[in-house]
Amino acid sequence: MTTYIMNWGVFFEELPGGGERYWQLIVSGVGWTLGVSACAWVIALALGSVIGTIRTTDRPWMVHFGNAWVEFFRNIPLLVQMFLWYFVVPEFIPPLKSWIVQTNPANAQFVSAVLCLGLFTSARVAEQVRAGIQSLARGQRMAGMAVGLTQPQVYRYVLLPMGFRIVIPPLTSETMNLIKNSSIALTIGLPELTFRARELGEYTFNFFEAFTAATLIYIAIAMTANRVMALVERRTAVPGYIIGGAK
Amino acid sequence: MHLDFSIIANSLPYLWKGFQYTVQLTVTAALGGLFFGTLLALARLSPIKWLSTFAGGYVDLMRSIPLVLVIFWFFFLMPEILQWATRAERPVQIGAERTAIITFIMFEAAYFCEIMRAGIQSIPKGQVNSAYALGLTYGQAMRLVILPQAFRNMIPILLTQTIILFQDTSLVYVISATDFVGAASKIAQRDGRLIEMYLFVAVVYFVICYTLSFMVKRLQKKIAVIR
Fold first, then answer.
1. Of the candidates A108, B11, B196, B205, which lies 20 to 30 Å from B180 by C-alpha distance?
2. A75 Cβ partners below 8 Å, 6+ apart?
3. Domain boundaries, chain B
4. Which member of B72, B170, B206 has the closest CB to residue A79?
């Protein structure tokens, strides 16, 4: 009868090539996961804010563009989008293609993954931002107009400062989703955390220990992100307002 | 660059088989996930402490790690568990396709649990009390009074989650199961036609998901009027 043999010391053993140890493999995976997530998050927040905001304006073409953006990224599986960014898009952009051919594969994977996750998450952020702005009392926009502000000013001084605060809790869960979704980058070969955990399992057959480590790290990252966003929420709270049902 | 879409026409039967598996996986996981998710939701809302702690822990765990990692976990654990359960000589292999079905049922149960929990909590407490006052047992009160209403209120969200599930099933690619994406990518790699294949796959998914979510939106409006 074959039984699985636990070996928690596996993380401190050396790789077959020598020099590096297995825990270093996991740490480098965490680095890629956090790096991809952070860069994609910047893109998602910037684009998502713009797209979400223009979907609440009174310009039909802006609203249609924003809606099309969201529907496009929301209705194609993330895995397929990943393949599109890595295998298909470069074929249509010759300079990008020639850069990918000569650069280190990890760079090309990183750029593809960041663009893919950033744009995918931007659609989700846009949806949250739109909902946040539309949840504000209609009177706020009218009051802004009545005191003579232009539409950009109404957004800049009245709607967005409140809208963004309302949106913080849903953005927290989108941040978690982004970190989890970054694992899909392993399908194009990016050596992020899940990739490294599986690699460790394949080298040593200690899959249980490898996946347990990855699971605990993901939980730790999620809890940290949660704390950071809760801190942001507390720091930006407007006295006298109940934000997003919290507190 | 030279595009040749005849590859798609030539491989349609194989793609269709992959697509059928995708649909089968989605439907099975949705129904199984709904069943176990409802049980989990009842456990989570249960006054029995250890039961609600267990259900809450399971749901939080599933929701805090990536689906890809969950798939790897089950792919690795399933043969070991089956070996233990059947007292077999060696780990029992059941193949990527069947492993995927079990994985998705277990994973979706966590997400459906949260939806059903919200649905149950949206029913006024007086309904439970009046059910008990009429002499119904806990099981009867849930089955005849609470769950039918909770389920109906949550239909649009359950359907939206199923559309997300339909997209997520593409991740069985990581254990080389032949779903729609798996079938497409096997042919794409064999014939070196990645561009045509992945564009085709993207269009198919987009058309289906866009249509379905459009229908869900209409349904949502209809239900909103009834309520």
1. A108
2. B167, B205, B206, B209, B210, B213
3. 8-226
4. B170
Report field, pTM of the whole predicted structure over 0.95: no
Cβ-based burial of A98 (10 A; exposed 0-12, middle 13-18, buried ≥19): exposed
> Å from B166 to nearest chain A CA?
9
Tell me which chain A residues have a C-beta less than 8 angstroms from the C-beta of B215.
none
Q: Give the residues of chain A that fall short of pLDDT 50.
A: 1, 243-247
ipTM: 0.90
**Residue pLDDT, tens place only, B130-157:** 999 999 999 999 999 999 999 988 999 9
The answer as to whether A247 is a domain residue is no
- pLDDT computed for residue B223 by the predictor: 80
Nearest CA in chain B to A88: B195
The reply to whether residue B66 touches residue A180, judged by beta carbons under 8 angstroms, is yes
Indicate the number of domains in chain A: 1
Domain formed by B8-226, architecture: Orthogonal Bundle (1.10)
CATH of the domain at A159: 1.10.3720.10
Please tell me the distance in Å from A79's CA to the nearest CA on chain B.
7
Tokens of A244: 């997003």
CA distances from B131 to A246, B71, B78, B117 (A): 32, 41, 42, 19
- At B79-124, the pLDDT tens digits run 888 888 888 888 888 888 889 999 999 999 999 999 999 999 988 8
Q: Which tokens is A203 given? A: 């080298």
Residue A170 phi, psi (nearest 5): -65, -30
**Which residues from B are below 8 Å from A183, CB to CB?**
66-69
Q: Which residues of A touch B74 (CB under 8 A)?
A: none
Measured CA to CA, the distance from residue A176 to residue A220 in angstroms comes to 11
Name the closest residue on chain A to residue B3, using Cα atoms: A91
User: Which chain A residue has the Cα nearest residue B167?
Assistant: A77
Q: Which residue has the tokens 């790699």?
A: B189
Task: Match 């794409």 to its residue by tokens.
Answer: B188
Q: Tell me if A58 is assigned to some domain.
A: yes
Instruction: Inspect the interface and report whether the beta carbons of A88 and B73 lie closer than 8 Å.
Output: no
Chain B residues touching A174 at Cβ < 8 A: none
User: Is A129 part of a structural domain of the chain?
Assistant: yes
Query: Is position A37 within any domain?
Result: yes
Confirm or reject contact between B213 and chain A (CB < 8 A).
yes
> Cα–Cα distance between A28 and B186 in angstroms, integer?
30
B167–chain A Cβ distance below 8 A for any pair: yes
